[in-house]
Amino acid sequence: MQVWHFNGAVAGLLLLLINSCLCAKIIHFVPTLSYSHVAFNGKLAEAFKEKGHNVTIILIDVDPTVSSTAAGNVEVHRIDVNMTNGILPSTLWHNPGPFENASPLNPKIMLKLTRVASIFVQTCKNLLLDKGLIFEIKNRQYDIGVVEQYDMCGIGFLKLINVKSIIWLSATGMYRMQPETMGINYPLSYVPELFAPLTDKMSLIQRLLNAGIACVTEMLHKILPIAEENRIFKRLNNKKHFNLFKEASYSNLILANIQPFLDFPAPTSNNIFPIGGLTVPPCQKKSKLNPQWREITDIAPFFIITFGSIAKTIEMPKEMQRSLFRSFKFFPQFTFIVKYENITKEIQKYSENVYLAKWLPQIDLICHSNYYGIITHGGWSTVLESLSYARPMILMPLFADHFKNANVIADRHLGIIIDKSMIHKDTFTDAIEELVTNQRYSLNSAKFAKMLKEGLPTDLPRLVSHGVQRYSLNSAKFAKMLKEGLPTDLPTLVSHGVQRSLRDSRFSQKNFRFKSADRSLWRNNSGDIFILLTLFIITVSI
Question: What SS3 state is found at 87?
């Protein structure tokens, strides 16, 4: 376990210098859930650091294979929390695997999510046992804490070290529990759940499915991890009541890796800032591809085939793999570069227009002028990367938010969806044929790439600073605002209001009968309420 030691005089001098240049001390709380989440935090940390802020990332080591890619000028500390090596990836990515049924309503997935939740609870317990570590971090007196929405332990940890201003992140699309914690209701009748394979245009059956997935994911999120972590922090803070959701609701702002034009309609708030695409690195003027890669990519337009760092191409079901590789021979005008883990060389030629590689320099390949498109799993980072460089995609969603991401892309005609449960020999051939022959995918990708670029904040650190200041007014200012907003003569105001409401018989009860439109609205809402209550009772009984 790593413990930091500081010279008091040096620390004081550094703090004085930081304050003198109006820089903030920012701490990122980052469990090593996956590469994409850690990379998202790293890019944000770099953006803060470039503006002169003092930034520290603490990596909570739940998966030792995941490391930070933040630049060297960002201070990174990896915290050992005494978890069994490999327990998280072996639990999260197997039984069932990514190419199997990943619906949250699948009992195997429910059991898996319960096990993952217990791992995060144990991680939280182990982290908080190290009093020395907490003391050292607390003494650094951070101004701003940054934490993602999937692990609420970070909210409690920032509270424990007396961080007053919290930035709540979402590296994926918005999970409903995050905005609803901030008081923003997501109606399930037209806002698809993050883990649901749906759009905003739902039939009655699809709305039932959406509500069912919402009930299951919410209960799995609240019952085990949140309830147990609430008890942990209640003991640490010596309080009768402690609620992580309540503490999260005091967050100063939410930075979400989304853009409204790349999402389905949903209620929002002025303390939710969309920054989708901000963490996608710009293309370099000079290619970083080595000579071997340049030789392959310069031949012809090429496709990239990768299913992320989790799903391995070699673990594909045989029929799926045959359909994929069979499709390549029908398009000799293209080169296909496949991330394939089970080869002896780093890059290996498979056939005339197919190359296999253990690892792909993905951004450098996407930046190449011959890059045509990607066949991938629908991970949000990969989607944003390909779209940022104006290229269409073929998406085969595997798990979690992939299904919603794929539906957003298909709805905007930026790509094509392949259903992993309905693969036949021509599945990939038909998808590539449609992408190549129908120009609307390329044209729309170019249009949305421009929108994505223009939709980014020009100065992220200034945006964050503004958000924190706006929501961190002290109690004296609020008291003054409250006092100035009160009526000067409350009794007179009340008397006037009562008299006005009673003076005319037209405001009697008969005028408050339901109109036909009101009755219809009431019936619709009553039905939704009844359906949700029924689903809730059924889910609990299961």
Answer: helix
From residue 541, alpha-carbon distances to 188, 207, 535, 538 in Å are: 22, 21, 10, 5
**Can you name the residues that pair with 349 across neighbouring β-strands?**
355
Question: Do 249 and 159 contact (CB within 8 A), yes or no?
Answer: no
Q: Which residue has the tokens 């000799």?
A: 332
Q: Please name each of the domains of the chain with its CATH number.
A: 8-274 (3.40.50.2000), 291-454 (3.40.50.2000), 473-541 (no CATH)
Rounded CA-CA distance 410/427 in Å is 16
* Tens of each residue's pLDDT in the chain, 542 residues: 344 444 444 444 344 444 444 578 999 999 998 888 999 999 899 888 887 889 999 999 998 888 887 877 899 999 999 888 888 888 888 878 889 998 888 999 989 989 999 999 999 999 999 999 999 999 999 999 999 998 899 999 999 999 989 999 999 999 999 999 999 999 999 999 999 999 999 999 999 999 999 999 988 888 778 889 999 999 888 887 889 999 999 998 899 999 999 999 999 988 898 988 888 888 888 888 999 999 999 999 999 999 987 888 888 999 999 999 999 999 999 999 999 988 878 899 999 999 999 999 999 999 999 999 999 999 999 999 999 999 999 999 999 999 999 999 999 999 999 999 999 999 999 999 999 999 999 999 999 999 988 877 666 666 666 665 555 544 445 555 555 555 555 555 555 555 555 554 444 444 434 444 444 444 444 554 555 556 555 554 54
Please compute, for residue 64, the number of CA atoms within 13 A of its CA located in the half-sphere on the CB side. Answer: 8
Q: Where are the alpha helices (DSSP H) in 222-317?
A: 227-236, 244-248, 291-297
Query: CA 242 to CA 168: how far, in whole Å?
Result: 19
Three-class secondary structure of residue 255 per DSSP: strand
- What tokens does 149 get? 């929405």
In the chain, the amino acid numbered 230 is N
- Work out the angle at residue 280's Cα, subtended by the Cα atoms of residues 278 and 281, and round it to the nearest 5 degrees: 115
* 3-state class (DSSP) for residue 172: coil
